[in-house]
Design goal:
Blueprint lengths: L22 H22 L1 H5 L1 H16 L11 H13 L9 H13 L1
């Protein structure tokens, strides 16, 4: 590992922006975050589309959240955020793609409850 002594210590402080605080730099930072988020989603969310039961569970979560007013609020869930949770549960073996959609939905609710 190379030394990081050349980096000023103030730049390593948490919550400190390394770019000047102007509207152009804020827009640039937002664009970088937006592009990297979509690159991540494209790379990892294909697992949801491969399994029809997981995709059906995603629809059940959408309907459940819409009924309770938790979908697409300013601080609510989106399809991508729930799909990332489903991929996480698949990779950690808490869900199995061979489970029915209702069983998968139950696992998601149990995960949120705990």
């Amino acid at each position: 590992m190379q030394s990081i002594d050349w980096i000023p210590k103030l730049r390593l402080v948490p919550n400190r922006c390394n770019i000047k605080d102007t509207s152009k730099s804020q827009f640039y930072n937002h664009c970088l975050l937006y592009d990297s988020r979509h690159a991540f989603e494209d790379a990892h969310l294909t697992e949801v589309k491969e399994h029809t039961n997981v995709e059906a569970a995603l629809v059940l979560v959408q309907v459940w959240a819409l009924q309770r007013g938790l979908w697409r609020n300013h601080d609510g869930w989106t399809k991508e955020s729930v799909a990332v949770l489903l991929v996480y549960l698949l990779r950690t073996s808490k869900m199995n793609p061979r489970m029915t959609a209702i069983q998968l939905f139950t696992v998601v609710l149990q995960t949120w409850a705990t």
